[in-house]
Amino acid sequence: MEKQEVEQLDAPIILAVKGQTRNTVAYKLAKHLKYPLIDQDEITPFLQNSKHLNNISFEISLSIASIQLKELKLGVIISTPLSQKTQLDNLKKQAKSAGALLVIIQCLPKDGSNDFNIEGVPRLIVDPRKQTFVAEEFVSDELDKVRKRSYRHLHPLIFKNKLIAESEVKCSRCQETIPGPYYQCFLGCDEYRFHKACGELPGDLEQVGENCPKYLRVTEPEYLFPENLRSNCKICKYKGTEFSDGCHDCLFQTNMKGGFLPIIVNHESHAHPLNLLMMPLSYNYEFRCSGCGDFGHSISYRCYDCNFNLHVSCILLPRTVSYNYDKHPLRLTYDSLEQSYLEKSYCEACKEERNPEHWFYYCPACESSTHLNCVTNQSTRS
């Protein structure tokens, strides 16, 4: 599974570099990342003498950055003294209006400007006095970690059958310490780690069906979550916004809080774990179900390695049913490629042709095959 298949860096980034060595660090980062560089010190000499030079040059820097962020969707690097709390507040507003991630890079030694507490913004420390600053290493070792934690992206979970070295790592669902084994986001998000039991489908399939509201398992789902269970994600909290059904992280968090659907399903029909994928309706996400063969929208259980998708309703199909037109229980069957099945590639109920590669209900005693819909419309669970 490649990272670019699941990572969705859907927002630009602002790197505000401050401190005595800020120009050197900012120039190296701009060259490596190929981001526009706005140097506040280069603007100041062109302004007329004024006691407000610092503020004016900072506001001009922000104005230039706004064009890069909003119009061109580019990341920007601003080399700035960032000497006042109001300037940080304005940077935050700029980032919020552009939907950008703001990161402060503090270069040591500090430049003697007024220091203030930086809250609610990721801050990285650079000290070129200790070792030569290498932009490539800084981006891969430090900046990428912040981006993974802060950017919206899908969260394919991978299973790790080992102990966790850190003793205080907690499960995102139950908040208890994880000794191992566990599930973790493929991209390394610290906030998406789960005990094996907390991530997987519980044993009682019928209970899962009862917990899952109808609006999540229909062909055209809607996100009608009760208001008291709606939860905003870390990024939306940082941006000061509430739950949004246009944010897949908010949908993920809300489902986790409400316990509507399991995050991981180990299904008999597929060799790999299936991840719950909940996409905003505005994304128009569409897939073809590998079970019934019909199209689905917005919500699926997906294997990222195999491009295998299932409807929620297909995941919840009963494994055995009683059927009005057969005295024997019918068994949900996935592997329809055996010769005996191919010989009867029609539905016993409606007498229409049946695609032998799609799931069906099978009676071993009668050797009869029936469409899923033909059975579920008239059957009861046994």
Automatic annotation (TrEMBL):
Any one GO MF annotation of this record = zinc ion binding
Which keywords does the record carry?
Metal-binding, Repeat, Zinc, Zinc-finger
- Where does the Zinc finger PHD-type domain start and stop, copy by copy? 170-237, 288-351
Domain of life of the native organism: Eukaryota
Q: Name one Pfam family in it.
A: C1_2
Protein's UniProt name: Zinc finger PHD-type domain-containing protein
Name its species: Gossypium anomalum
Species lineage, top-down? Eukaryota, Viridiplantae, Streptophyta, Embryophyta, Tracheophyta
